[in-house]
Amino acid sequence: MKTKIFFIIMLLISLNCFSQVIYSEEFDQGVNNFTSTSSLSTSINNNTLQISGNGTSSAWEALTYSFHSSSTNINVDASSNPKLYIKVKATNSTELRIDFVDINGYVTNATPSSINTSSNYQIFEIDYTDKFIDGGYGGPCNPGPCMVDSTQLSGLMFFLDPGSGGYNGNIEIEWISIGESLETIVDYEIRYNQIGYFPNKNKYINLVAANNFSPKNFQVLDTNNNVLLSGISETVNYWNDGNEYVSRVDVSSITNSGVYKFETDELEINFTIGTDVYASLSEASLKYYYYNRASSSISSANGGVFARNMGHPDDTVYIHSSASSADRPQGTIISCPKGWYDAGDYNKYIVNSGISTYTLLAAFEHFEDYYLSKTINIPETGGDLPDILDEIKWNLDWMLTMQEVSDGGVYHKLTGLNFSGIVMPESYSFDRYVVQKSTAASLNFAAVMAIAARVFADYEAELPGYSTTLLNASQAAYNWAMQNPSIYFTNP
Known about the structure:
By secondary structure, the protein is an alpha+beta fold. It has eight helices and 27 strands. The strands form seven sheets. Strands 1, 2, 3, 7, 10 and 14 form a six-stranded antiparallel β-sheet that branches. It starts with a helix and ends in a 9-residue tail after the last helix. Residues 1-18 have low confidence and may be disordered.
């Protein structure tokens, strides 16, 4: 009997050594030990920490949290188990970087640790083993590196969207702990169509994990918490392409439009069923082009939080040596305003934007009735043309300036001679050039202009002669390409 009692005591001691909460904060003491800034404010509501960002935070603006016992600040020894746990969600998904700070003000920033939040509560484990080093990026550690004292930690630093800033939304933290999670960590996640499902189409929700797991209990509830569907998810299968394990739930039997809750024993999400669930996605996709307009400011009335000043008027563009001709020798100045910026820079490309322009033209031709009345709040909304054609014309007008009228050839791109770096359009200061005519650009241009001529022929009264201009430009570019079938573009 004594032997058995001794064994139980030793087992409990052993378990305690491997699992122990060193510090925890459940925000239930009425103490807000977070700092606030002009752009990031904190408060405690219903035992939950609320962080609100107004969209103006700087790239490395941080919130500081001090470890405490009631209202008295304390230092924490996390050397035995340097793992931080946090239960968090955010209205707008954001990167949240969390650094330990010691009593000297040294920060674990040499190898920073970040998590990516979502709109549903998640529990994250962050292991700081071998990360207690300050790289000397400002602050008291100068020059670095400096060792962060894991035995005397004073608190945490929280960075929202580190390196970019501008977080606009709300983050809710239910608890934080060091050493051990305050709740069971869920080792799988729910993946589903976050836009929505159509009523009479197949509808699947997937439970996904990096390791094999057992099928999960689930139920689906309506807004009145009536259980519409329940059961156990399907047999877990290995998905080779994703190197993940997946258990599927078929909710296709639910066909009424509405918002529903899907929940397992550990997780829950809300999903939508409706006949027009993709409407907002369609509108956002079309509106995206407006935000990428060159030679234009984006007003707050039309662009909301994406408002910005104008950049790249492109009314002084130089002929590069690779593009020189008898009629336009090197250094000749031309005007090439409008168009859309490309993916990762402020250059404007015929081939790249041409396929996008064609895609919009094809969308309009195939679904004309839909787009005739579709407005997306751009400056031209309410004018003589459907909004989609106004947006298409913004790039067509630029493309026309990229053709040398004397021979019909089309310059491949409009560019600076170097990458500008990550700056706002108004801060761009490089000279701009058009470079080298190419067969690819000319054929792309010819195809897009031909289709555009066909579409805009129906708007002769609104834009007299525009369709003819497009068609003539198309034919000239095509003729040049036939005479120059093998001029391949290379960056000069």
